[in-house]
């Protein structure tokens, strides 16, 4: 199993052997590590000032792979787990070796040459035998949008016998980009093209995909198929990965790049209270009204509402969850968690969670808040949200706010768009009322709708709020 990576002095803007600094591997000293079922080597077939090639060679022992519990038991015949293409064809085994040998390079860190690590450089990559379930066209569809020139040549079987091409391609990539980006592309897409993994795929693989796909996968036209294949066609995991990629992308966008918000959202110089502030104030008033003391902010973002609840001694336990790890990191910084007193820290829990999946850590709380959250969920996923929040967690009360789309006519700057680029829908008052009634009836809650913000006689308030109260609690 073989992969080579080449650059030149002109493409690197430095002696070509500086590739060794970027990879953290000395061209003059071959290195090796033990991986599941074999040994991975890094060596340099050529290393001159003008041209340098680093090669990753993975020797796989099929018997050792089976003994490690990682060999596939069904390959079409009895000895299939021992006699197969794993020792020769690039696969998830090679991706794992890539991640172990070039872990630091994949993060974009190079203490010796930081300016070089941040620079786009000319690269040539070759994988001589890559299983490609989908053919050469699929390799082009995956690597092409990332800026690579793709030459995927089908590997023939035996033309003398009239056989067609095999499912393998000789993959050659040329492009100009950061080395870290190139390595992450390979780490994700090699096993995706093979469409098979040699190890059990669990929820931790979602984090690996999101981490390696940061900065490119969220915008890839084939992101859905890539996620499904990477996660062994487990729909639940693929959906979680896509949700997290979208939110991480949103969190990384500079606010200056976002379109202007409607005027009522930001207030003006005449003392108008911003609508975001009015929402938070109203939600806190509702929580006080129902006597909630242990509250979860689901989809807490950067923790603004969490911070307000922590500042209020009426709330003895405050939980903040979000699907975006980046948002939670920002929330910790905003709340100065590291500087909190022990007593204050005991009141707070921040953890990663999705509103569309059951999470036992949310059990036993008085109330939950979904403030401007549901409109970020794809409509087909709303029943899953209802099951998780109203069915499994069974909060005593749930407070939900969402935009009133009828009010958007009062925001000329919006045109026909939504109030935020990540909104999947925005409901009218009648649509929101229908959804809340259906959820309340299905899960044993009473629901009350309230306006938030200035009320327009024709189109209502800009934000609509629903207070769900569990019937057995209300009784």
UniProtKB/TrEMBL annotation:
Keywords: Magnesium, Metal-binding, Methyltransferase, RNA-binding, RNA-mediated gene silencing, S-adenosyl-L-methionine, Transferase. CDD domains: AdoMet_MTases. InterPro entries: 3'-RNA_MeTfrase_Hen1_bac, Hen1, Hen1_N, Hen1_N_sf, Methyltransf_12, SAM-dependent_MTases_sf. The keyword Metal-binding applies. It catalyses: small RNA 3'-end nucleotide + S-adenosyl-L-methionine = small RNA 3'-end 2'-O-methylnucleotide + S-adenosyl-L-homocysteine + H(+). Its cofactor is Mg(2+). Residues 1-246 form the Hen1 N-terminal domain. It is an enzyme of class 2 (transferase). Its EC number is 2.1.1.386. Residues 297-388 form the Methyltransferase type domain. Belongs to the methyltransferase superfamily. HEN1 family. This is Small RNA 2'-O-methyltransferase.
């Amino acid at each position: 199993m073989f992969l080579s990576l080449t650059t030149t002095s002109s493409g690197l803007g430095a002696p070509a052997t500086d590739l060794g600094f970027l990879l953290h591997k000395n061209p003059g000293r071959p290195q090796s590590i033990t991986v599941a079922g074999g040994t991975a080597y890094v060596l340099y077939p050529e290393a001159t000032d003008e041209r340098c090639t680093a090669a990753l060679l993975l020797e796989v022992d099929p018997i050792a792979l089976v003994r490690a519990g990682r060999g596939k038991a069904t390959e079409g015949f009895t000895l299939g787990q021992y006699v197969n293409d794993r020792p020769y064809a690039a696969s998830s085994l090679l991706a794992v070796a890539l991640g172990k040998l070039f872990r630091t390079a994949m993060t974009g860190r190079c203490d010796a040459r930081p300016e070089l690590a941040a620079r786009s450089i000319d690269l040539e990559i070759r994988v001589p035998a890559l299983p490609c379930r989908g053919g050469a066209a699929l390799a082009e569809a995956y690597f092409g949008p990332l800026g690579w020139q793709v030459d995927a040549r089908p590997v023939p079987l035996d033309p003398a016998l009239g056989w067609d091409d095999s499912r393998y391609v000789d993959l050659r990539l040329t492009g100009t980009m950061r080395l870290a980006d190139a390595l992450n592309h390979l780490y994700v897409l090699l096993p995706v093209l093979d469409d098979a993994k040699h190890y059990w795929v669990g929820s931790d693989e979602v984090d690996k995909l999101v981490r390696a796909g940061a900065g490119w996968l969220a915008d890839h036209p084939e992101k859905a198929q890539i996620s499904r294949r990477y996660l062994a066609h487990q729909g639940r995991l693929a959906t979680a990965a896509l949700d997290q990629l979208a939110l991480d992308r949103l969190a990384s966008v500079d606010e200056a790049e976002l379109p202007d918000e409607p005027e009522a959202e930001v207030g003006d110089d005449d003392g108008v209270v911003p609508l975001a502030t009015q929402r938070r104030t109203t939600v806190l008033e509702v929580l006080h009204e129902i006597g909630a003391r242990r509250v979860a902010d689901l989809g807490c973002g950067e923790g603004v509402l969490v911070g307000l609840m922590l500042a209020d001694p009426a709330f003895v336990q405050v939980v903040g969850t979000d699907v975006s790890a980046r948002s939670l990191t920002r929330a910790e910084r905003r709340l100065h968690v590291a500087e909190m007193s022990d007593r204050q820290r005991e009141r707070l829990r921040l953890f990663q969670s999705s509103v569309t999946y059951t999470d036992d850590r949310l059990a036993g709380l008085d109330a939950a808040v979904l403030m401007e959250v549901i409109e970020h969920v794809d409509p087909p996923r709303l029943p899953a949200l209802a099951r998780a929040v109203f069915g499994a967690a069974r909060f005593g009360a749930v407070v939900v706010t969402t935009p009133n789309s009828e009010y958007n006519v009062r925001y000329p700057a919006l045109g026909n768009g939504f109030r935020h680029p990540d909104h999947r829908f925005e409901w009218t008052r009648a649509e929101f009322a229908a959804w809340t009634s259906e959820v309340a009836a299905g899960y044993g809650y009473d629901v009350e709708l309230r306006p938030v913000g200035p009320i327009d006689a024709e189109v209502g308030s800009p934000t609509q709020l629903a207070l769900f109260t569990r019937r057995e609690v209300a009784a």
